[in-house]
């Protein structure tokens, strides 16, 4: 490696892209193109970075498979930063296999780390956990080690394992200090603030209060039937009933949970479940049918008893009933939760992450844009959407993920 290339690589490793460009800005050979691409990515010029890395991959040619694989990994990282989640994962896997075959353990492990990050972004938490577990952070330099620990923490947060998340973030903080890159240190500090920010609202006995993630974890482990309006499930410690695909039943059990230990009038239940302000005999008949279905669904957790004016929830074993709701409830909350990371998202990437159709996401974005809650730039397929974060709140419970 000639001296300018070595100096540029050293500058990039220290998070100083401008110094790196001073060494390679006027060169068009393959190593210089690759380093220029990485420098542009660090400066936020992701489109230009992608072009430079593709040029570098072609310039290296078939004779230098390792260098081409490294360019592919760098391009994959840029795709993740640009929230281009449709970037071919097979190409990343092929690059990783090439590096493993040539003994480049560090970059091969980092490729696996990028796979885990992509899986976490699209809500495939189990797969992300398995992939991250296959990485050996001991071979990583401090920068990559910090990034790996952020992924481990992200998985733990999505599972509400706050102790595991805090331990991973502590390790990330130590690695970031070793790397001496201010932007990385700031990212770790931002992740640490998630653990101390309100993550949900507890509704019980007619009162509401905000909970941090650690308090949410404690609530789910307590002797309480939790009507979880973040994941649309009803929990009692080890038992869990998902009502994510049965919105009417969930609306009924949430109303009963908010009123516990009291009951809820029949007309109020009709209004919550069916959206009707006027109650006739057909509504009452439908309510009886839905209450019967809810009884069967919750048979292992609680009983629904009829009262003189309505219905009440009677847990079998638990001593308390509480509702766990989002800290800020509004329409299209899941879309806002993803956009609140501050990165520009395409509608196709949002659809992939949320597991829904692109047209549904586009309608949600149009509605949010009309309300002034999101903004966009670019046109056609290059259009990207962003939104400011909700101050003081973590969006972990709004994101798609496991309900166990």
Task: Report on the architecture of this protein.
The structure is a single chain. α4 runs antiparallel to α5 and α5 packs antiparallel against α6. The strands form 3 sheets. This protein has a 6-stranded mixed sheet, sandwiched between helices. The protein has a 3-stranded antiparallel sheet with strand order 6-8-7. The protein contains 18 helices and 11 strands. β3 and β4 form a beta hairpin. The chain is of the alpha+beta class and 404 residues long. The radius of gyration is 25 Å and the shape is elongated. Helices cover 57% and strands 13% of the residues. The chain has 3 domains: 194 residues, Serine Threonine Protein Phosphatase 5, Tetratricopeptide repeat, CATH 1.25.40.10; 126 residues, Winged helix-like DNA-binding domain superfamily/Winged helix DNA-binding domain (Arc Repressor Mutant, subunit A, Orthogonal Bundle); 66 residues, Winged helix-like DNA-binding domain superfamily/Winged helix DNA-binding domain (Arc Repressor Mutant, subunit A, Orthogonal Bundle).
DSSP strand count: 11
The CATH topology of the largest domain is Serine Threonine Protein Phosphatase 5, Tetratricopeptide repeat
Largest beta sheet: strand ordering? 2-1-9-3-4-5
* Number of domain units: 3
Mean pLDDT: 87
| Major sheet characteristics | 6 strands, mixed
CATH superfamily of the largest domain: Tetratricopeptide repeat domain
